[in-house]
Write a structure and sequence with these properties.
Order of helices and strands: EEEEEEEEEEE
Shape: elongated
Distance between the termini: 41 Å
Structural class: mainly beta
Low-confidence stretches: none
Number of helices: 0
Mean pLDDT: 96
Amino acid sequence: QVHLVESGGGLVQAGGSLRLSCAASGSIWSIGFMGWYCQAPGNERELVASMPNGGRTNYADSVKGRFTISRDTAKNALYLQMNSLVPEDTAVYYCNFNVFSSSGWNAYWGQGTQVTVSS
């Protein structure tokens, strides 16, 4: 099976930074879409940043200029550099990969990592 494990969340003061990581393990033949989502209490899960197949980057307007998504294809890993954090960024962040394996293309989610930004 393919598993996505996240790390890097925590408590940080407004204006601070965090770096989230998401690493996939298992029998992986290829990875297409890679993205980060956030879900605040009572809210829907929303796309924060993504790297569609081909290496392009997309950002939600609320994080543009503050967050940077990147990947390390050799490590099957995805990162989110979060700078100039504000309390509104507080949420659980989830990574999502589209993975091609012996069972074809499937989407996988990380377990989520809590980001809390204090004012």
